[in-house]
């Protein structure tokens, strides 16, 4: 069993969940409350990683991160080296890959907040920031937990995107799913299945935790996700 | 309602069934054969009217699939070890193991590099402008193993080790360097002379610097058409097929000699 790969995957998943929370909350707020007619286009873009094969996403990322890609050029100018085959590169690719898993539960959750409360808050003189932090956010805790846990779990099991842009460097980009794949390829089936079992157990525990928390909270704002 | 259901079933049946065809010979082949085998297949079809249906992939994956009953007639592996494992497990037609070629490796760089690869050879990899060198994963990709062995023979493995990135197979290693994310790669010659990469610079690694990359074909036990499979294997041994393999970047052992070592 490869502990280094497992720890790397956990570190990656934590970074990605944190970044997705920071990006996801304002984005979801806008998606939940904006009345812009073209909103559905952005909703479709956010949902793309749900349906695109990870290898397609990874292939585009590889081109974007290269010396001729927009992202790659920017990174070269700032740091003097490429973005592919680095931990930072994996983080950026995974943020895109897990985006809908953070944003959609948040949107679902924000949308179920009773409009009357928002109106009352406005009538009483609260600005939209205050309404957001005092009303919407506290009422959306189960949705936020769901978003965090799903982005964590989804990134933890990520394979295709990492395979395309990672380069399989131990401790840098060799994540647990790549390690399992490598072992299966080298015919080390028992090693592969031990690590796979551990991943299965962790994923199950994480998901049970989120279902348990939501049950206790008695609210399933995200229950309709992802069929909303 | 009933008629629309019937229509639905009819449509499903149409989607599921495949049009009847003369049976194709199903071949599982290593990724480095992509271009050579396309050509071999079209020659064979012209000669015999039989079509070759090739799945390209990693030899390790194919081994696992064949052990679990994958429906292939022939297996063309990039590493003779895999067919030997199948032989030991009794999954091949006895006596059909044939080494059809030896793989060759090159250092490859994009054409816009200022390094004069042909002149400096190995030293090119030590150039400071080379930040990443892509190779196949030496844990399971035969060309990756050969690349590491060659780096050891050249005495520069320790110096370049931190620059190495691993493709899942040699074709992905080629993709890393062709897309510019790595600045050099140690790749199969057969890929380096393919249409997409022909323009780049390349330098062939001398064959005595790495153990031979023995490519071997076998007929599988659960072939549906032993005769047809034998026919294609015989074609692989023909002078015509050998010439094609050579032109696509493989060395071909002298006739009648299997398991031959590289000179």
Write the layout of secondary structure elements.
The complex is a heterodimer of chains A (228) and B (263).
Chain A: H1 3-33, H2 39-51, H3 54-65, H4 70-79, H5 87-111, H6 115-123, H7 128-139, H8 141-156, H9 160-165, H10 176-185, H11 189-217
Chain B: H1 2-16, E1 25-30, H2 34-48, E2 52-57, H3 59-67, E3 74-77, H4 81-88, E4 98-103, E5 105-109, H5 117-120, E6 133-136, H6 142-154, H7 157-160, E7 164-167, H8 170-178, E8 184-188, H9 189-192, E9 201-204, E10 213-219, H10 226-237, H11 239-247, E11 250-251
Parallel strand pairs in B: 1-2, 1-3, 6-7, 6-8
Antiparallel strand pairs in B: 3-10, 4-10, 4-11, 5-8, 5-9
Structure description:
The complex is a heterodimer of chains A (228) and B (263). Chain A is mainly alpha-helical and 228 residues long. In chain A, 76% of the residues lie in helices and 0% in strands. Chain A is built from 11 helices and no strands. Chain A has helices at residues 3-33, 39-51, 54-65, 70-79, 87-111, 115-123, 128-139, 141-156, 160-165, 176-185, 189-217. In chain A, helix 1 packs across helix 5 (87-111). In chain B, 39% of the residues lie in helices and 20% in strands. In chain B, the strands form 2 sheets. Chain B has a 6-stranded mixed beta sheet. In chain B, strands 7-6-8-5-9 form a 5-stranded mixed beta sheet. The N and C termini of chain B lie far apart (73 Å). The interface between A and B is medium-sized, with 22 and 23 residues.
Instruction: Report the sheet with the most strands of chain A, covering strand number, pairing sense and barrel closure.
Output: none
Report the C-alpha radius of gyration of chain B, rounded: 21 Å
Low-pLDDT segments, ≥5 res of chain A:
221-228
Rg of chain A (CA only): 20 Å
What is the multimeric organization of the chains shown?
A: heterodimer
Tally of distinct domains of chain A: 1
- Describe the sheet with the most strands of chain B: 6 strands, mixed
Instruction: State the name of the first-level CATH class of chain A.
Output: Mainly Alpha
Number of helices in the DSSP assignment of chain A: 11
CATH structural fold name of the largest domain in chain B: D-Maltodextrin-Binding Protein, domain 2
Unreliable spans of chain B are 258-263
Q: How much β-strand is present in the residues of chain A?
A: under 5%
What is the N-to-C succession of helices and strands of chain A? HHHHHHHHHHH
Percent helix of chain A, as a range, is over 70%
Intertermini distance of chain B: 73 Å
Shape of chain A: globular
Please tell me the CATH architecture of chain A by its name.
Answer: Orthogonal Bundle
CATH class of the largest domain in chain B: Alpha Beta
The counted number of beta strands of chain B is 11
């Amino acid at each position: 069993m490869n502990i280094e790969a497992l720890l790397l995957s956990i570190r990656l998943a934590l970074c990605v969940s944190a970044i997705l929370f920071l990006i996801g909350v304002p984005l979801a707020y806008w998606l939940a409350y904006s009345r812009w007619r073209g909103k559905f286009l952005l909703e479709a873009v956010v949902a793309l990683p749900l349906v695109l094969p990870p290898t397609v996403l990874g292939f585009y990322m590889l081109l974007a991160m290269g010396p001729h890609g927009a992202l790659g050029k920017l990174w070269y100018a700032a740091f003097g080296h490429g973005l592919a085959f680095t931990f930072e590169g994996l983080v950026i690719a995974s943020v895109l890959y897990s985006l809908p898993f953070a944003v959609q539960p948040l949107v679902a959750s924000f949308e179920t907040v009773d409009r009357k409360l928002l109106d009352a808050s406005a009538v009483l003189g609260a600005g939209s920031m205050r309404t957001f932090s005092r009303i919407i956010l506290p009422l959306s805790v189960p949705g936020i937990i769901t978003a965090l846990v799903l982005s964590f779990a989804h990134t933890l099991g990520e394979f295709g995107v990492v395979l395309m842009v990672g380069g399989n460097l131990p401790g840098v980009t060799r994540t647990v799913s790549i390690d399992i794949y490598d072992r299966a390829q080298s015919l080390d089936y028992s090693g592969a299945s031990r690590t796979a079992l551990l991943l299965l157990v962790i994923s199950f525990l994480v998901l049970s935790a989120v279902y348990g928390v939501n049950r206790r909270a008695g609210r399933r704002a995200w229950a309709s996700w992802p069929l909303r | 309602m009933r008629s629309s259901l019937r229509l639905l079933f009819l449509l499903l049946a149409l989607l599921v069934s495949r049009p009847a065809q003369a049976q194709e010979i199903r071949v599982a082949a290593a990724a480095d054969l992509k271009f050579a085998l396309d050509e071999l297949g079209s020659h064979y079809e012209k000669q015999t009217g039989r079509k070759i249906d090739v799945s390209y992939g990693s030899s390790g994956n194919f081994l696992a699939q064949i052990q679990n009953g994958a429906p292939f007639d022939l297996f063309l592996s990039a590493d003779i070890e895999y067919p030997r494992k199948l032989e030991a497990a009794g999954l091949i037609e006895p006596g059909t193991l044939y080494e059809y070629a030896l793989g060759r490796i090159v250092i490859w760089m994009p054409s816009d590099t200022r390094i004069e690869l042909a002149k400096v050879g190995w030293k090119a990899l030590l150039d400071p402008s080379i930040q990443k060198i892509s190779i196949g994963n030496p844990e399971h990709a035969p060309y990756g193993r050969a690349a590491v062995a060659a780096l050891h023979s050249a005495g520069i493995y320790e110096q370049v080790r931190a620059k190495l990135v691993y493709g899942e197979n040699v074709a992905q290693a080629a993709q890393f360097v062709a897309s510019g994310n790595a600045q050099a790669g140690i790749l199969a010659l057969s890929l380096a002379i393919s249409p997409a990469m022909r323009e780049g610079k390349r330098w062939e690694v001398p064959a005595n610097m790495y153990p031979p990359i023995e490519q071997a074909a076998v007929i599988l036990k659960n072939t549906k058409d032993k005769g047809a499979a034998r026919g294609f294997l015989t074609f692989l041994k023909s002078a015509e097929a050998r010439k094609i393999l050579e032109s696509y970047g493989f060395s071909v052992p002298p006739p009648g000699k299997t398991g031959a070592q590289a000179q």
